[in-house]
């Protein structure tokens, strides 16, 4: 379900806080988590991203918010900027369903987007669980980057990519 209302923005912000504080505590310091949440996943940041063309989707399971994803279409590929699933909903195939949804959108000639034939994402190099999930879904590492995100924090990431697959 696309995020379009203020209520949904608030729900995504709350889900981000849930996921980031529980999941990233072994990868980032509490200070870096707070900084990144404010910079990338606060209501203000979400509103700004939506105005810049990012599209957020709420991932539902049993009509409950189980997680969310965010994408940005470029001329060459779709950038999967976020794919986060709450702990209690992991290992239930939600990531696979989200990627299949992207495949459906970008392989459908009727939508006029079939010229976009790759999905690209960034993942922390220490995030072995996510790397394994993405590799299982057909992504491969194409390069490694260190990005200064401000306040003295650096994200050490792999850029991963996979082709859009026809469904």
Give the structure's gist in a few sentences.
With 167 residues, the chain is α+β, with helices and mostly antiparallel strands.
What does this protein look like?
There is one protein chain. This protein is an alpha+beta fold and 167 residues long. It has five helices and six strands. Strands 1-2-3-4-6-5 form a six-stranded mixed sheet, sandwiched between helices. β5 (140-150) and β6 form a beta hairpin. α1 (6-23) packs antiparallel against α2 and α2 (30-41) packs across α3 (43-51). The mean pLDDT is 94.
Side by side, the strands of the main sheet go: 1-2-3-4-6-5
**Using DSSP, what is the number of strands?**
6
Which architecture per CATH? 3-Layer(aba) Sandwich
Low-confidence stretches: none
CATH topology: Aminopeptidase
Q: What is the CA–CA distance across the termini?
A: 20 Å
Work out the helix count. Answer: 5
What keywords describe this structure?
Aminopeptidase; 167 residues; 5 helices; 6 strands; globular; alpha+beta; six-stranded mixed beta sheet; single chain
Write the layout of secondary structure elements.
Blueprint: H1 6-23, H2 30-41, H3 43-51, E1 55-61, E2 64-73, E3 78-85, H4 94-107, E4 118-124, H5 128-136, E5 140-150, E6 153-163
